[in-house]
Design a protein that fits this description.
Elements (H helix, E strand, L loop, with lengths): L1 H9 L9 E5 L4 H12 L3 E6 L7 H13 L3 E4 L5 H10 L4 E4 L13 H21 L5 E7 L23 H20 L3 E6 L2 E2 L8 H10 L3 E6 L7 E2 L2 E2 H14 L16 E6 L5 E2 H12 L4 E6 L14 H7 L7 H16 L20
Parallel strand pairs: 1-2, 1-4, 2-3, 4-5, 5-6, 6-11, 7-10, 8-13
Antiparallel strand pairs: 9-12
Helix pairs in contact: 2-3, 2-8, 4-5, 5-6, 7-9, 9-11
Bound molecules: nicotinamide-adenine-dinucleotide.
């Protein structure tokens, strides 16, 4: 039964250029949107997610229901389960893997450091091992992070800038991933693209991210804490709307060359790429709060405190010239518009005044994301 669903979900509807993609972390924020977008254009998609409880598992279940409506089957399992992976690669000839499963978040490393090593380091190796052992090696596109720039102060961040001063275990685990990608490309000829996402936000987003819990707390009349840098400088992020990130992911899959296998081909070695996917427009966190206040028509109760050394960096700012040139990446949504869509989703779907649909049986809901 299980295998039938996997095969059907992996079937390519779009000819002649359709692809068949294993999306890991498919019940996650980016994974759900990317899987849906692939499916909509007729690609074969199989999801994989372990539904861990890092944040609200019922939100992940609601995303799963959304995916199931669009015909994407989601396998419940861990990326470190080698047996499960080899079974999946035996069942389906995946042309691509979009590897998004990871332990996200910076501060959680102070609670559960091991989860970053297990999911982001060992988990990536497990995926690359499965891919290189597959009869037909898929191209890999995976989520690195803007956090690899760490304490770099040269802005905007370019792919060629130094990444040897991570500020958090999360950043270090993503940086380790980039080194590991180099090894699997070099030895096994895997085609690998790493995408450095910059603070992704939007409908179906992550409750552990500031824009999400600020919205929750402003609505509840609770005070929100805004951090400022040690020198009183403002904290800024290059907030990037989810649809723009998805466009970048799909463009990366579409421009990924085939893996060559060990030794490369006459045409040369297998492809190894890294791209910034950001918005090139950093916004101070105080401005984020002001936009939320306008959309929510409510005032925030603010508490401003000095930023602790918890792994957060003071600002992020992407140079996206390379992604523009090589991928045709073109972010189109500014923070004002993107947050409007988020707030609409939050109020009409996630937590309407009548009570969260998530706790209402039988209402798995539909996407309010245009
Ligand atoms: P998310 O937490 O919503 O999604 C990750 C998903 O992976 C979750 O559903 C989780 O259950 C699953 N997962 C985690 N460990 C797993 C494991 N061992 N086996 C199977 N499934 C596992 O996060 P997201 O915001 O959608 O992020 C997607 C990717 O992008 C992650 O790799 C993240 O590190 C990266 N990223 C995200 C952002 C952002 O702002 N959202 C920024 C930079 C990088």
């Amino acid at each position: 039964e299980w295998e039938k669903h996997v095969r059907s979900s992996a079937r390519i509807r779009r000819r002649p250029f359709g692809i068949s993609v294993l999306v890991t972390g498919a019940a996650g924020f980016v994974g759900t949107h990317a899987s849906n977008a692939l499916r909509r254009r007729g690609d074969g998609v199989v999801g994989l997610d372990n539904f861990n409880n890092y944040y609200d598992p019922s939100l992940k279940r609601a995303r799963q229901a959304l995916l199931s409506k669009s015909g994407v089957f989601l396998v419940e399992g861990d990326i470190n389960d080698a047996l499960l992976l080899s079974k999946l690669f035996d069942l389906v000839t995946f042309t691509h893997v979009l590897h998004l499963a990871a332990q996200a978040g910076v501060r959680y490393a102070m609670v559960n450091p091991g989860s970053y090593v297990r999911s982001n380091v060992a988990g990536l190796v497990s995926i690359l091992e499965a891919a290189r052992s597959a009869t037909s090696q898929p191209a890999i596109v995976w989520a690195s992070s803007s956090s690899v720039y760490g304490l770099n102060t040269q802005v905007p961040f370019s792919e060629s800038h130094r990444t040897d001063r991570p500020a958090s275990l999360y950043a270090a685990s993503k940086k380790a991933g980039e080194e590991i990608a180099h090894v699997y490309n070099h030895i096994y000829g895997l085609s690998i693209t790493g995408l450095r996402f910059f603070t992704v936000y939007g409908p179906w987003g992550r409750p552990d991210m500031a824009y999400f819990f600020f919205t929750r707390d402003i609505l509840a009349g609770k005070s929100i804490t805004i951090f400022e840098g040690s020198d009183g400088a403002t904290i800024a992020r290059d907030f990037t709307y989810i649809d723009d990130i998805v466009q970048g992911c799909l463009a990366s899959l579409d421009t990924a060359q085939k893996s060559t296998g060990s030794g490369g081909t006459k045409q040369g070695p297998a492809q190894l790429r890294v791209f910034n996917l950001g918005n090139t427009s950093p916004v101070p966190v105080v401005e984020l709060v002001a936009i939320l206040e306008r959309h929510l028509k409510m005032k925030a109760k603010r508490k401003v405190v000095k930023m602790p050394r918890n792994g957060d960096v003071q600002f992020t700012h992407a140079n996206i010239s390379l992604a523009k040139k090589e991928l045709g990446y073109h972010p189109t949504t500014n923070l004002q518009t993107g947050l409007k869509k988020f707030v609409k989703w939050y109020l009409t779907y996630y937590a309407p005044p009548s009570g969260s649909y998530l706790n209402k049986k039988g209402r798995s809901g539909s996407s309010s994301n245009s």
